[in-house]
Specification:
The structure holds 2 protein chains of 2 kinds.
Chain A: E1 2-6, E2 12-17, H1 21-29, H2 32-35, E3 38-44, E4 51-52, H3 60-68, E5 74-75, H4 76-86, E6 91-93, H5 101-115, E7 120-124, H6 128-145, E8 151-153, H7 160-169, E9 172-175, H8 177-184, H9 192-196, E10 198-203, H10 211-231, E11 236-240, H11 247-255, E12 260-262, E13 272-277, E14 281-283, E15 288-289, H12 293-305, E16 310-314, H13 317-332, E17 342-344, H14 351-362, E18 368-371, E19 386-390, H15 396-403, E20 413-418, H16 423-430, H17 432-436, H18 450-463, E21 466-467, H19 477-486, E22 490-493, E23 496-499, E24 518-523, E25 531-537, H20 538-544, E26 550-553, E27 556-564, E28 569-575, E29 579-600, E30 603-623, E31 629-634, E32 640-650, H21 653-656, H22 663-685, E33 692-697, E34 704-707, E35 713-716, H23 726-731, E36 735-740, H24 748-754, H25 756-769, H26 783-786, H27 790-799
Parallel strand pairs in A: 6-11, 6-12, 7-9, 7-10, 8-9, 10-11, 13-20, 16-18, 16-19, 17-18, 19-20, 24-28
Antiparallel strand pairs in A: 1-2, 3-13, 4-5, 14-15, 21-23, 22-23, 24-25, 26-27, 27-28, 29-30, 30-31, 30-32, 32-36, 33-36, 34-35
Helix pairs in contact in A: 4-5, 10-18, 12-13, 16-25, 22-25, 22-27, 25-27
Chain B: H1 3-12, H2 21-39, H3 59-62, E1 66-70, E2 73-82, E3 87-88, E4 91-92, H4 101-108, H5 111-114, E5 121-128, E6 139-148, E7 151-158, H6 165-176, E8 181-184, H7 191-201, E9 212-215, H8 217-223, H9 233-241, H10 254-264, H11 267-296, H12 306-318, H13 322-332, H14 338-355, H15 358-371, H16 376-389, H17 393-406, H18 412-432
Parallel strand pairs in B: 5-8, 8-9
Antiparallel strand pairs in B: 1-2, 2-7, 3-4, 5-6, 6-7
The chains are: A alpha/beta, B alpha+beta.
Chain lengths: ~800, ~450
């Protein structure tokens, strides 16, 4: 296709030949240098839609509005969902982006309000941006309906003046779980109208509520249902989830009652090509690859030059700006385009600007847009033709969500994932079958984690006194109430437990993070003008702002002078040194209770409860660029003890001793293997790498592995002395632990135990497919840490898993 | 293992980590104390419960009152009569019932209130288990007050435990049924929403819903706030009522007192809470009387700061009572408080101007210039009058340019507007006398 590109003067300025997506894909497919970095090129053919008529209960005026929008008929999954909702059952919808899921709930909700104007509905979205987008969507429908239906968002930004009328008049209240938890339920009497008429609760992005967040949300729902019971209502829950391995199970875990699953989309889908791209290695020894931004920029520039409208996702807001700038620079000199030809688009941009960019996208004046993640995106962004993801978005589910931003309705579209130099990115692109087959990602929650449960029992008691015989959660409620009574926060009289403290318990817990307490980092370089430069969460403070550490913010180095844990402050001052610091920590795990055990070959696999002791013992000073170790320092911080749940397996020495390597190498290999397993486990659990942790030792805690001063792995006894004694080490078989990093556990260990075989197979694939020579951060860990023989040793150890 | 033991193990190991409830509570406690120290006048406040080491004392032994039995259960009820000859600070109880109802209507911005009688007023104040609000905050003591003849009655309804709430609330429904309007101090934002919430929780009808309500906090801010460091009840008591509480329990200690009471059932713990609440209720009545007098003009003028009267005048003006406002302002024109006098002149002159009483207005402006030849307000107003009403451009130019040339502190904005006015005036004179232009 040839396009004449004319300037304002009407003079033919440039003639260029542009390609369609199909042509572009074909050209790239034949381009040997491009193919070299492609680990998979997956074609998904177009599919036909399947349709169903509107259910007969839909009011004519509602139908008219939809007809006016060009919706003449429903997709089968929409009709199915609407009928389930209408019949009063809970439902979870798992359908791809742009399959019209919002209509699945908006239609029954609006219908019900039209029939019974006092009906109320609550919509929950994990982010404010999504909530705002939903507002636009439903406002549009209501506007066309010309009905007196009020919809409001209620979040931290809602002005005080507006709150009262929202409480009384809002038919549909759009909010987030955090606000429901701290702002709505503890004041439920002010929301009497809502709770007394609550018919529907819509929960979008259900898969986001997993781990700690999901465990909290289950309890938030327990409280919500309890308040509804007080007002005599029992709302229907309508959930939407991205594709994960266990959507029905997950919805049922969150709601604690049966939920119908709809996962067959009736929406037609267009042809799509999905490419996994691994940038070239630039340092083979360290296994470091080119930054994902570099190929992203080149490929995007090429697509855009071909008039292919492209959306790019990066993993940080900084990268949004960097990539936008690069691309703007690329096009600025070339064609007479306006400054919005390539635009950034993320939360934090003003609404006007966002609307302007959205319009530009629809008018094709904006041909490239760079964003952080799909959850920040508006719905009204139009149909892009190509999507480039610079960096794995963190889960397969969100990768598909982002990819779905391109080619939402018609025509051939392209999705391209570019890996970064992280183990998870590398594993995904190097193991395409893992990515393209049925979702391996599981959502797990543990709402009965005692600490989480206890927080919500407090909040629930604040909302309504507990009565004898009431049920809340899976633990013995009366015992927990008794515990709180002993602590003086509950008071029992006449078989009821009343909140009897001055505090507001919902404020004591954040639903999203493990420990809401942060350490404030204060720059004292200028005397008399201390300046807060950062906040570090409690747990990472121990490894980042210990006294003597070099703390870095935007490449400025600060020396930590004092860490005041009591006042939660770290005092730092600017320095200009040639080294950074790396904390030396040890982790010791002791098994307390063994829940289950199986034998895989000669390897014993178990899960259960453990005690974890962690301590920062010192730090290394490491020179920039050369990575030389130039000194040590001691750290005196309290050790952290934690009870949690863990999955572990034990490899007997007599089996390990059959390998043609020395004991030190075996330990190196185990350590490398644990590194790989830790990362793969995070993939299966859709967890952040910090949500789980790893350790190597023996089950009784008699010895464990840690870094020595020379960076090599050594064996240590719990009292801190190096375990020189061969005899002692021989007496216990080495065990690799992967444990929940949250006290009490969050339900991950049980799943890892069940998925042991897959986990080991994936770790094997990760190590085998890694392009490095002797180990790198992407497989068994950096050579300096893991030891020069770690990679080979890990492979040898993995071969033992097949020994019968 | 038992749940409790598991929990202890989980929390026990978190000793070093922050955020465990006790830690947080200590901090909020500390904050509250600091706050209270900053706000309170230094009264000897040795923790009273330090004395309560012996056996517990029954409530009836320290507080005059009795158990009330209702079909909904029991609660504790205390009634006190304050006879007309009693003094509350400098105020005599017997004077309280002589309240101007019209003034109350103005204060409440609700004319319906003026239709009632002083004896229809129900003064109300609650003591609660926390200040955070929300359904978990429990009003355990409800203090009420009303006039009976020349006497003032206080009634206190006390829930000795959470289980007595329903009886208390239903009794409160009955007690309040023959009262026509409420008087509170910050009740609109605090006490009433809290009670409304408790009525919902107990599935009872809220007797205060839709009842006329005078919340004293807002008029106090309007009329007295400008000269006090704050408008807390205690501040108003000491500066307006001449009342200094001695040994009063600080408000922030009250919730903990109640929790201690729940555990120990020692009447002495509640003694000063009752006292505190009772004084609050009487003070509300006293302040109502004071505000009403202030509005009526029935206070001896020399005893009232001019600035209060000026605020009253402004309130009248806002409510459309121009005559009342005008006479107050006229009285303030020569106030010894020069700031007040100037504000009064400005306001009154504008009042005249708006009513078309130009002569009266001009007299005030001229008087203002006599006192201060550079007075901006008067110069500008007079210049406007000269320009638009009497076409005396020369006088107008003289007024404006004098300020521009001689006034030492002109804001940029003011300077700009004066220059703008001056330019326009010069153009007009040019048009009028084209030959004289230079």
């Amino acid at each position: 296709m040839t396009v004449l590109n004319t300037s304002r003067e009407g003079r033919v300025q440039e003639i260029m030949t542009t390609q369609t997506v199909s042509q572009w894909v074909e050209r790239r497919n034949n381009d040997r240098r491009f193919r070299e970095h492609v680990t998979a090129m997956h074609h998904i053919p177009a599919s036909q839609g399947s349709y169903a008529p509107f259910p007969d209960w839909v009011q004519p005026r509602l139908k008219e509005v939809l007809l006016g929008r060009g919706i003449k008929v429903l997709y089968t999954h929409q009709a199915q969902a609407m009928n389930i909702i209408r019949s009063g059952r809970d439902v979870v919808l798992v359908t791809p982006t742009a399959s019209g899921k919002t209509l699945c709930y908006n239609l029954p909700v609006l219908q019900h309000i039209l029939e019974k104007p006092e009906t109320r509905a609550l919509y929950l979205f994990p982010t404010k941006a999504l909530a705002q987008d939903q507002m636009h969507e439903i406002h549009g429908l209501i506007g066309e309906l010309k009905a007196d239906i009020r919809t409001f968002t209620y979040d931290g930004d809602t002005p005080d003046e507006a709150r009262q009328s929202i409480r009384k008049q809002g038919h549909v209240v759009v909010t987030n779980p955090d606000m429901l938890h701290t702002g709505i339920m503890p004041h439920h009497t002010k929301w009497q109208k809502l709770f007394a008429n609550l018919q529907y609760v819509v929960v979008d992005e259900l898969h986001v509520y997993r781990g700690v967040f999901g465990s909290h949300l289950t309890n938030v729902f327990r409280r919500l249902k309890r308040i509804c019971r007080f007002y005599g209502t029992d709302p229907i829950f309508i959930c939407c989830s991205a594709t994960v391995a266990n959507p029905k199970e997950h919805a049922e875990n969150l709601l604690e009652r049966p939920v119908e699953l709809i996962d067959k989309s009736g929406a037609p889908s267009a042809e799509k090509t999905f490419i996994l791209y691994n940038p070239p290695i630039i340092n083979r020894e360290l296994g470091i690859r080119q930054s994902a931004i570099t190929p992203a920029r080149k490929i995007a520039a090429d697509l855009i030059a071909n008039q292919i409208q492209t959306i790019m996702f990066t993993t940080s807001r900084l990268n949004v700006e960097v990539l936008t700038k690069y691309l703007k620079d690329t096009f600025r000199g070339r064609t007479p385009v306006n400054d919005r030809f390539v635009s950034g688009y993320r939360g934090g941009y003003l609404p006007n600007l966002r609307r302007e960019i959205e319009k530009g996208l629809r008018d094709r004046e904006v041909m490239g847009v760079v964003s952080t993640n799909a959850l920040e995106l508006g719905i009204d962004i139009g149909d892009m033709e190509a999507c480039i993801m610079a960096g794995y978005p963190g889960s397969i589910a969100s990768t598909w969500q982002q990819a779905g931003r391109a080619g939402r309705r018609m025509g051939h579209s392209l999705a391209l994932l570019i890996a970064r130099s992280t183990p998870i990115d590398q594993f995904i692109v190097e193991n395409p079958e893992f990515f393209f087959s049925r979702s391996p990602e599981h959502c797990r929650v543990n709402p009965d984690n005692l600490l989480i449960l206890l927080h919500h029992i407090k909040s629930a008691a604040f909302e309504l006194p507990f009565e004898r015989g009431e049920l809340f959660g899976g633990e013995e409620l009366e015992e927990l109430l008794g515990y709180l009574e002993e602590k003086g926060v509950l008071h029992r009289v006449d078989q009821r437990w009343h909140w009897s403290a001055q505090s507001y318990p919902a404020d004591e817990v954040s639903l999203r993070c493990v420990n809401p307490e942060n350490i404030v980092v204060i720059d004292t370089t200028e005397t008399g003008a201390p300046n807060v430069i950062a906040e570090v969460d409690w747990d990472s403070a121990f490894t980042t702002v210990y006294e003597g550490a070099i703390y870095m913010v935007e490449s400025q180095q600060y020396h930590v002078d004092t860490l005041d844990l009591e006042r939660r402050k770290a005092y730092v001052r600017k320095v200009d040194g040639d080294y950074y610091t790396d904390a030396m920590t040890y982790t010791n795990v002791r098994v307390i209770d063994d829940f289950d055990e199986t034998l895989h070959g000669r390897i014993i696999v178990e899960h259960g409860e453990v005690e974890v002791v962690r301590k920062v013992v010192g730090y290394k000073k490491i020179k920039f660029y050369t990575s030389e170790n130039v000194g040590y320092g001691d750290v005196t911080l309290p050790q952290k003890d934690m009870h949690t749940t863990s999955y572990w397996f034990t490899i007997p020495w007599d089996l390990l001793n059959t390998l043609p390597i020395r004991r030190e190498e075996i330990i190196d290999g185990l350590k490398g293997l644990a590194h790989a397993l830790h990362h793969i486990a995070a993939v299966l659990l859709m967890a952040d790498i910090r949500d789980i942790d790893r350790a190597i030792g023996d089950k009784s805690g008699q010895w464990y592995v840690r870094h020595g001063r020379d960076s090599r792995v050594i064996l240590t006894a719990p009292d801190g002395e190096d375990a020189g004694s061969e005899v002692m080490v021989d007496a216990y078989d080495p065990t690799i632990f992967i444990f929940d990093a949250y006290p009490g556990g969050i339900g991950f260990s049980n799943l890892l135990f069940e998925q042991h075989t897959g986990l080991v197979a994936s770790a094997t694939a990760l190590i085998n497919s890694c392009g490095c020579e002797h180990g790198c951060p992407m497989c068994v860990g950096p050579v300096l840490e893991a030891g020069p023989s770690a990679k080979d040793a890990a492979r040898l150890i993995l071969s033992l898993f097949d020994v019968p | 293992m038992k749940v409790k033991d598991r929990l202890r193990r989980l929390t026990g190991e978190r000793i070093e980590t922050p955020g465990s409830p006790p830690d947080k509570e200590v901090i909020t406690e500390l904050r509250k104390k600091i706050q209270a120290i900053l706000e309170r006048s230094p009264v000897g406040s040795t923790p009273k419960d330090a004395r309560y080491t012996g056996g517990s004392v029954r409530l009836e032994q320290v507080i005059t009152g009795e158990e009330v039995r209702t079909p909904q259960g029991m609660f504790f009820f205390s009634r006190t009569v304050f006879t007309d000859t009693t003094y509350h600070g400098i105020m005599r109880i017997g004077d309280f019932p002589r309240i101007g109802m019209d003034s109350l209507g103005i204060l409440a911005k609700n004319p319906v209130i003026s239709l009632h009688e002083p004896c229809h007023a129900l003064f109300l104040d609650t003591e609660t288990t926390g200040l955070s609000g929300g359904t978990g905050t429990f009003p355990f003591l409800v203090g009420l007050g009303w006039f009976e003849g020349d006497h003032f009655i206080t009634c206190q309804l006390f829930a000795r435990d959470f289980s007595e709430e329903k009886a208390l609330l239903s009794f409160l429904q009955e007690l309040s049924s023959d009262k026509k309007f409420l008087v509170t101090f910050n009740g609109k934002a605090y006490d009433l929403p809290l009670l409304a919430s408790r009525y919902i929780l107990n599935r009872l009808e809220d007797p205060f819903l839709g009842k006329e309500h005078l919340d004293l906090l807002h008029p106090c801010r309007r009329l007295l706030g400008h000269r006090l460091e704050n408008t807390r009840l205690a501040t108003l008591e000491s500066s307006i009522l001449g009342l200094n509480r001695r040994g009063d329990i600080p408000g922030f200690e009250i919730p903990q007192r109640y929790f201690d009471w729940l555990r120990r059932r020692d009447g002495r713990l509640m003694e000063d809470v009752f006292e505190h609440n009772r004084i609050d209720v009487i003070s509300m009545a006293a302040i109502t009387k004071h505000l009403s007098d202030l509005l009526d003009g029935s206070l001896a003028t020399q005893s009232v700061p001019g600035v209060d009267l000026f605020c009253v005048a402004r309130l009248h003006l806002e409510r459309g009572n121009t005559d009342a406002s005008r006479s107050l302002l006229e009285g303030l024109l020569c106030s010894p408080d020069t700031g007040v006098a100037k504000q009064a002149r400005e306001t009154l002159s504008l009042l005249h101007k708006k009513a078309g009483r130009w002569n009266e207005a001009v007299v005030i402006w001229e008087k203002m210039l006599e006192d201060d030849v550079l007075d901006i307000f008067a110069s500008v107003e007079l210049a406007k009058w000269c320009e638009h009403r009497v076409s005396d451009y020369d006088r107008a130019i003289q007024l404006v340019s004098r300020v521009l040339e001689q006034h030492p502190f002109l804001s940029e904005e003011l300077q700009w507007s004066l220059e703008y006015r001056l330019r326009r005036l010069l153009r007009r004179t040019l048009r009028k006398h084209p030959t004289e232009g230079s």
